Every structure is written in C-alpha cells, then in structure tokens.
C-alpha cells in the first residue's frame, strides 16, 4: 500500500456526507437525495475504514456492495430458471475475486474474469439443458460479472494502493455525474467542456496532496470526463436494450447500479493509467 498514514481528509468528507444523509432523512419531504450521494457515502465509508481500521474489513464491505449490485442487476433482467448454475458461479466469483485482492495476486485477478470465467460461464449455462436463450443468458451473466465484480474490484485495488487517489477518482466522477444529471439546459458538448475544465482544475490544484504528478493530473482531468460521458451514453443504451427503464428503478431494484455505473466505467482506466505511469507494475 502506498499510503502509510491515515488521512483526516477521508474522515472529514465521510463526516460531511453522513451529516447530509442525516439531514436528508429528517427532511425527506423537503430534500430529495439522489442515490448517487448514498453510493459516494459508502465509498468514503470504505476508504475511511481502510485507512483508520483495516483494509481487509473495507475490502469485504466493498465485496458486499458488489454482491448487492450484481443481485440488483439480475433482478432487472430476464434470467431463466435454467441459468441457476451460471448465477451461482457469478455469486461465487465475488469472494474469489476479492480474496485475490486481499492477498495481492494481481496477475490472477486481472485475467480471472475476462479469461477463465468468460470461458467457463457458457458451460454452466448450458448445464440448464435448454438451448434456446443460451447466448442471451451468457451475455447477461458476463456483462454483470464484468461491471459489478471485475470493475468493482478495480476500485478496491485502487484503494489498496492509494486512498487519496481513490478519493480523487470518486470526487471527479461525482462532479461529472452531477453536471450530466442536473444541468439540463446546456448542450452535451458544452457539458463535456465544463467537466474537463472543472476536473482538470481539481486534479492540478490537488496534485501535491494526491501524489499524482502534475502532467498526469492534467491528463486524467481530460480522460475522466470523456469516460464518464461515454459510460453514461453506452450503459444507458445497454440498459434500455435489456429493458431496464428509469420508471422500473426503486430501492433494491436498480437504484444502486444506476448510481454506480459511471464509477465502474471509469475505475479500470483510471487504475491502469496510474499503475502504468506510476510504476505500480514494479510492485509484487
């Protein structure tokens, strides 16, 4: 782990988010809080626990969030009863993947789902012995595994290497998400320019604190808004194709995956960019 001492910043932001959650609870008739705020609160809870208590405890809380998101996703798509073996493998992959992070076996972590699980999954779906619909089922299960287990694992690995850099990614995606959701009268391209200016400024101002060199801070300030906009459009279209509509979403049935999607789209690129340029690959 690159961060040795616990950060008061994660604790301060977590306390602020907790206060906002309490205020929104007691004033729910006057204040409407989007599900993304709750997800940010969970992320900062995990980072705070990682830095002040134990990374292992934080890791398994994130694994529970991964399970919750995957279960939500499966509840919204048309999974057949015959796919129960594939669903079981999907759920069992969560503790396996997060245990690989716990023991820092990066080499197996990075190929376990994109190689081995994607090869094995069609076999377990085929065990249902109903050939019709197998291709759709395999695609849905692999999609869920990739985003809600594999990409979530990248957030966990990022926290393992640097809680401060993880905080920067979460804040940056939260800002771009807010601009996408709440500034409706502005053209899409202008929104992207606003996001790039905001995130570039944020990363460059905090470069000394975050540990990300200035040139890479500027580059990430451009990359994250582009990823967020791309992810917002791509995953929205994929969800529509799967029949996941905004009117069908409510607590326990899609609100979590709706709030998570931009973080999951951005986290792998953010992690691998830093791992490559900051030479994390030289670590065991």
Report what the structure shows.
- The protein has 11 helices and no strands.
- The protein has helices spanning 8-26, 35-52, 55-76, 84-102, 106-126, 134-161, 163-182, 188-205, 207-210, 214-241, 255-277.
- Helix 6 (134-161) crosses helix 11.
- The radius of gyration is 19 Å and the shape is globular.
- The N and C termini lie close together (11 Å).
- The protein has one domain (8-282).
- With 284 residues, the chain is mostly helical.
Summarize it.
With 284 residues, this protein is mainly α. It has helices at 8-26, 35-52, 55-76, 84-102, 106-126, 134-161, 163-182, 188-205, 207-210, 214-241, 255-277.
Q: How is the secondary structure organized here?
A:
Blueprint lengths: L7 H19 L8 H18 L2 H22 L7 H19 L3 H21 L7 H28 L1 H20 L5 H18 L1 H4 L3 H28 L13 H23 L7
Helix pairs in contact: 1-2, 2-3, 2-7, 2-11, 3-4, 3-6, 3-11, 4-5, 4-6, 5-6, 6-7, 6-11, 7-8, 7-10, 7-11, 8-10, 10-11
Whole-number tally of structural domains: 1
Structural class: mainly alpha
Count of distinct strands: 0
Overall mean confidence score, pLDDT: 85
Low-pLDDT sequence parts: none
Helicity level, as a percent range?
over 70%
Strand content: under 5%
Q: Tell me, what's the shape? A: globular
Instruction: From the alpha carbons, calculate the radius of gyration and give it in angstroms.
Output: 19 Å
Q: Give me the number of helical elements.
A: 11
Distance between the termini: 11 Å
Main sheet specs:
none
- Which H/E pattern describes the elements? HHHHHHHHHHH
């Amino acid at each position: 782990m690159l961060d040795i001492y616990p950060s008061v910043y994660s604790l301060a932001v977590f306390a602020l988010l907790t206060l906002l959650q309490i205020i929104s609870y007691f004033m729910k008739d006057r204040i409407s809080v989007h599900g993304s705020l709750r997800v940010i609160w969970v992320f900062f809870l995990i980072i705070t626990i990682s830095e002040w208590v134990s990374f292992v405890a934080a890791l398994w809380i994130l694994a529970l969030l991964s399970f919750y998101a995957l279960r939500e996703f499966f509840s919204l798509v048309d999974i057949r009863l015959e796919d129960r073996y594939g669903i079981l493998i999907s759920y069992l992959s969560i503790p396996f993947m997060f245990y690989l992070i716990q023991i820092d076996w990066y080499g197996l972590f990075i190929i376990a789902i994109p190689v081995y699980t994607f090869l094995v999954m069609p076999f377990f779906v085929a065990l249902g012995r109903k050939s019709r619909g197998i291709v759709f089922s395999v695609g849905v299960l692999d999609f869920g595994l990739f985003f809600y287990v594999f990409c979530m694992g990248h957030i966990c690995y990022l926290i393992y290497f640097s809680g401060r850099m993880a905080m920067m990614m979460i804040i940056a995606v939260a800002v771009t998400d807010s601009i996408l959701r709440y500034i409706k009268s502005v053209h899409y391209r202008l929104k992207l320019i606003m996001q790039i200016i905001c995130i570039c400024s944020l990363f460059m101002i905090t470069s000394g604190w975050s540990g990300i060199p200035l040139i890479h801070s500027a580059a990430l300030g451009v990359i994250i808004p582009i990823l967020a906009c791309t992810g917002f459009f791509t995953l929205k279209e994929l969800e529509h194709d799967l029949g996941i509509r905004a009117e069908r979403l409510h607590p326990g049935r899609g609100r979590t995956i709706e709030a998570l999607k931009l973080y999951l789209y951005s986290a792998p690129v953010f992690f691998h960019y830093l791992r490559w340029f900051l030479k994390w690959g030289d670590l065991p």
